[in-house]
Amino acid sequence: MAPLLDVKNLSIGFGEAPPVVAGVNFSVHAGETLALVGESGSGKTLTCRSVLRILPGAAQLRSGSIEFGTGASRADLLGLSNSEIRAVRGDAISMIFQEPMRSLSPLHRIGNQVSEVLTLHRDMSLSEAKRDVLATFERVGFADAERAYRAYPFEMSGGMRQRAMIAMAMVAKPELLIADEPTTALDVTTQAQVLGLMKNLQRDTGMAMILVTHDLGVVANMADSVVVMNKGHIMESGPAAAVLGAPGHGYTKKLFAAAPMIPEVAEPSPPVVEDDLILELKSVSKTYSVRAGGWRERKLVHACSDVSLKLPRGKTLAVVGESGSGKTTCARIALGAEVPDEGSQVLFRPEAGAEPINIGALTRAQKVAFQRQAQMVFQDPYSSLSPRMRVQEALTEPMEIHKIGSKQERRDKAAEMLRWVGLNPDMLKRYPHAFSGGQRQRLSIARALTLDPVLLVCDEPTSALDVSVQEQILTLLERIQDGMGLSYLFISHDLAVVARIADEVAVMRQGVVVEQAPPDTLFYNPRHPYTKALIAAQPEPDLNRPIDLEEVARGAGSPDGWSEEFRFEGIDAPDLIQVQPGHKVRCHV
Amino acid sequence: MMFVRYAAWRLVTMLLTLAVVSVLVFIIINLPPGDYLSNQIAELRATGQAEGVAKAEFLRTEYALDRPLWEQYLIWVGVWDGPNGFSGLLQGDFGWSFEFDAPVADIVGDALWLTVLVNLAAVLFVYLVALPLGVLAAARSATWVDYTTAFVGYLGLATPNFLLALMLFYYGHKYLGLPIGGLMSPEFEGEPMSLAKVQSILVHLIVPTFVIGTSGAAGMMQRLRANMLDELSKPYVETAQAKGLGPTKLLTKYPLRMAFNPFVADIGNLLPAMVSGSVLVSVVLGLQTIGPALLTALKSQDQFLAAFVLMFVALLTLIGTMISDLLLVLLDPRIRYGAREG
């Protein structure tokens, strides 16, 4: 039987430059899921968009054909006229994009945007379309379809918006669904649920799917066959079992080696010794009062409540949580960038045995000294370096502010720090735009190190990076810690990243720490249902360890669904209790 | 319901702002030393015209100019017992114009409505021209359409208004037989409204509307183009494209709705800019708007006339901002439901 979609010798390029997608061949059969895997710049997104011919204006289709359809209606999509391809879009082939936050128009109701697909392609009245849309909404898991129909996108969470996007893509019952990184912007438990939904829908409707992703874990959970791309070329392709089980190409092997995994642990690790604490958060709370408009009442938002954390000198404490868990607020409070509520205390000991300094009550001189000793590495290396400053200026500026050394000494220090992060001191004269994402993050780290800090707060330092680059940055952070004896407060949403670097992990959910232990203990014996859900939701690049959706659904929902010992109502959570040495869980005894 | 509450709240804040503005206007008008009457008295004394002095002294007490400033202000507003009892802005008494020797209401009466008319026509012109051209320029960006509209727009921005007015009068009269100057033919002045008078006003409006509106339209067009270009690169446009939407609807349904916000928000700025910007044009074109009256009043320290005109412009501004705020709430659900998000 002929494949549903047959891409042959596809090449795409910009201007005079060599093609960014070169001679790509693959085919998708009806009902099959093909995963297009690659890192940024691999051409995977351009490839999948060329199927619907939704390409940037400057992109040229240089060669190839994309045959689609069955029987008499089979045609080369690249040869269709503009109005013919419009008839295919959204009807026979539909698409889901990466960012559910921005892929829906904020000014139109969800129902309007979804039913538009039907009024465009079917000869349907609005009320007929609405009936179909409501049915689809129920199918994708909206509890109150009627309400979702009336809602605006900003009234929904990211996961709900992506469900709405999926409904939009499914409502016309397409033969092929193209999903471009559909879950990359979502929290891990939401990702698990959305992937599960897509899999169910596919099983029910028998449609084919092209899944574009950088995440081998997602591939292992979803794909029947895999195409691995790098720099516009196909590196390896074949059935998922073959590619994932025994990767043949060196690049695929490299991807596997870099993919972070939650380890399977044989026994718990001993508790961390807590005698010399560099940083200590004592029952820290932060409440924001939000007022949306002059004529509305104020509302209290608890960003974090009663958080107590201890970071021993030279160790790494990781705070893990999904969006809205309060992890970044904790980091900001620890750095004194945010003033916590009354009764909270943040203590900092610059050296072993020194008198603790209260971050909440610093004198001016103490504050300057503290800012020198505690530095931060930010999430987005693209926006955290000024594009108008040379590397040298960016690296010497902190020392100028703190009036350290002469000009020559500052320059030497900057060069030395570049060497520490694995860059060449020749690069001092360059501007940030000349560097890749991974190199920029190295620069950010180098900048944080120029002041010889003792504490580094890393706020999702690898989240914006490709997996292979993430691997390098984590290795670098470990090397610096060993070499300089730094202590890290490491903020992340990714348990697998944390598994590798942390000595102690605190899992946060909606402003409270629900479980805290060394990573091995946590993975060996997770106690809290939310921790279990986080671990279960992590997609592993291993066909034998699929996502356990039931576990995810049990723990990621509201506390009502948890077992008796963890359950609570409102913000009246039970206390954090030490169940074993070094292992704390928020539960009723 | 929410909207009604918001509108009421907005109205109250507008009135409060107006009160503050009235204080500021009054202070600014009184900042230069002396006033119209004391200047006149000094001049009359110097030239030895005693009987004029008596009249000026009478007017001084009549309009309470001999009292302290704060009392003058309260009397002007109409909340203080003045020489004629409570008689001020609140009671509809706008005061006396010393320069024209007549009540302010009589002097600005007709001009007020003509001002509103001219400026509404100009605002309408701005929107009708800027909307399609801005969208077109964005949709066909970096093509000849874009460059032509930008060139014409910049030409409109760069040409001084009075020069444009003179040129348009000359060529408009020569080739189209358009009337020169004024807002109506002289025979209709002071006449009651009739069909012929309306017709005459409309014909006379063509050139002023064009002159006052061009620069506003050019600026607005460029802003709309820039907004549209920003919106066109957003992912939701791709989503709409992937649905199979046709090119025209793709443009008008999604990005235009988004780009519309700043467009609406500009109403508030547009109105006062046009009124004050059209003073010079009104003088050159001989329009009977309040522009020329304001100019004379400011030059001769005719304080009640000047204060009234400034208050009127302030009122227009506030009404303009209020309209745009209310429209934004209607147009953008994110503003409407803002509280639910937090």
Task: Describe the model.
The complex is a heterodimer of chains A (589) and B (342). Chain A has 2 domains: 1-82 and 209-251, Rossmann fold (3-Layer(aba) Sandwich), CATH 3.40.50; 277-290 and 297-586, P-loop containing nucleotide triphosphate hydrolases (Rossmann fold, 3-Layer(aba) Sandwich). Chain A is an alpha/beta fold and 589 residues long. Chain A is globular, with a radius of gyration of 26 Å. Chain A contains 20 helices and 22 strands. The mean pLDDT of chain A is 88. In chain A, the strands form 4 sheets. An 8-stranded mixed sheet of chain A has the order 16-17-18-13-19-20-22-21, sandwiched between helices. In chain A, 35% of the residues lie in helices and 24% in strands. Chain B has a domain at 104-341: MetI-like fold. Chain B is built from 16 helices and 2 strands. A two-stranded antiparallel ribbon of chain B has the order 1-2. In chain B, strand 1 and strand 2 (102-103) form a beta hairpin. The chains are: A alpha/beta (589), B mainly alpha (342). The interface between A and B is medium-sized, with 40 and 30 residues.
Q: What key attributes describe this structure?
A:
heterodimer; A: 589 residues; alpha/beta; Rossmann fold; 2 domains; eight-stranded mixed sheet; six-stranded mixed sheet; 20 helices; 22 strands; 24% strand; globular; B: 342 residues; mainly alpha; MetI-like fold; 2 strands; 1% strand
